[in-house]
Amino acid sequence: MIGQPSLLVDQVRSTAQLNADTPPVALFCPDRSLLQSTMLEAKDQAPVRLNDPTLWIDDSLVNDEWIALEQVPRFPVTNPATSEVIGTVSDMTVEHCREAIDRAHEAFKTFSKTTPQFRADVLQDFHQLVLANKEDLAKLVTLENGKSLTDSMAEVKYAASYLQWNSGEALRLYGRTIPSSLPGTRNWTQLEPVGVVAALCPWNFPIGMICRKVGPALAVGATVVIKVPAETPFSVLALIELARRAGVPPNVLQVITTDTHLSAIGDELCTNKKIKKISFTGSTRVGKLLASKSSGTLKKLSMELGGNAPFIVFDDADLDAAVGGALASKFRGSGQTCVCANRLYVHESIHSAFAAKFAAAVDAMKVGNGRDEGTSPSHLGPLIHERAVAKCVEHVEDAVKRGATVVTKQRPMPSRGAFFNPVVLADAPQDCLLTDEETFGPVAALIKFKTEDEVINLANETEFGLAGYFFSRDAARIFRVADALETGMVGVNTGVISQAVIPFGGIKESGWGKEGGAEAILDFCKVKAVI
Ligand code: SIN
């Protein structure tokens, strides 16, 4: 198991103590060679062959040690491609969560005082370790999330890019000097870490979304209690082990795996006074619940919520580019991302041509176990569970009842696992379940429109406002439509927008706050004005 954790804690504490008496700025830089964790022992029951078998972890991280929690029930995790149980993890309770918050609170006292350079170096090493272990991480993501290996590999690199970006951001925590309006005074601002952050992360990007939250938190010197998605714990546990190997100090990251205590743990994270910020990625319904529950302690919130993205193809678009963009946007992660195109508006003059090309491309996609040989970006894995399949079926049936036509082939799906044959619907009506709520699956509804004004109104006629896309070759229209779309992000002539360097996030009921870009750091800081 891991060596010398208490020694490390003492080392960090005593250094902080020393520095506490050294005015004016008590920053310190722990000896990173003392913070490297020792290697774990490999477990024999790993259901997948890893280059580094010690990354198969089913224990719980308590006081910087991976331990099996005695007398705590465990819950099963299944492979959505086979419906087989791949392992079990501890169903941690609200007491475990409270202890984790206490440890993170204690660790904050010293971690918040580390130098930005120390944190930048740790993040840089974390980034390198994620890349060095990308094959193992991708295999774990595919095993428990189902997405194709190619998709999983893209996620791991995407995740790593948030660590790299935030490593740089740690060195750019700038305040401002502000000319004073009060005689005899000077003003400046300084950024201070927000405190203990609760990160509630989804299963659709088990590695990506954690790096997007943990990256800025580590950069500013905040500590984090991570609520792990119950569907995909193993990739997260491996990721956290890599964080430890990179030299993230003890207890800075806390990890809660839970299934049956989810609601009680959510309540604790929302009401515990030691938590100063909640960073959530998930549905608008749960986001609203968390926002209302945490109002009693007025926590800082970042909410990355539902999407229902419009995707508009104008009559002057490059049709092949638009088909490529629609495929990339709609079918990433088998349609289970919050920025997936959900409502595809196609100008009436090109609707049939677009539908024919798009349907042919979708029919050419392979569907099967994401880990199979020959996986490619056009390989779709299963959905996360049967409930997700049922929602797709419901949305297709509803649209067909209201006049849409299925233009893709019906293919037999594997008999086991949560598979769904991808569907393109032509002539879908504007009023149907598909346009009203996120499908979160591989169903693409094509809706006809006549004019630019009409389609802008249709695109904006939703409470959501995360991402929007459009394809056009008319320069004046590009500026007009980019301005008019009520979304936090707009893809112009591209279906791929996600990058660590942009402020990712929505408006309206798609949430608050930004993840990525220069803006993300501010969400993890308090701005203090000194006069
Ligand atoms: C999400 O689906 O929540 C995130 C998608 C992305 O980062 O591209």
UniProtKB/TrEMBL annotation:
InterPro entries in alphabetical order: Ald_DH/histidinol_DH, Ald_DH_C, Ald_DH_CS_GLU, Ald_DH_N, Aldehyde_DH_dom, Aldehyde_DH_Superfamily
Record domain Aldehyde dehydrogenase: where: 66-530
One BP term from GO: gamma-aminobutyric acid catabolic process
Keyword annotations from UniProtKB, A to Z: Oxidoreductase
PROSITE patterns: ALDEHYDE_DEHYDR_GLU (PS00687)
Gene Ontology MF annotations: succinate-semialdehyde dehydrogenase (NAD+) activity
UniProt superkingdom: Eukaryota
GO cellular component: cytoplasm
Catalytic function, reaction form: succinate semialdehyde + NADP(+) + H2O = succinate + NADPH + 2 H(+); succinate semialdehyde + NAD(+) + H2O = succinate + NADH + 2 H(+)
Pfam families, per the entry: Aldedh
Pathway in which this enzyme or protein is active: Amino-acid degradation; 4-aminobutanoate degradation
Entry annotation: catalytic residues: E304
SUPFAM superfamilies referenced in this protein's UniProt entry, alphabetically: ALDH-like
First-level EC class: oxidoreductase
Protein name in the entry: succinate-semialdehyde dehydrogenase [NAD(P)(+)]
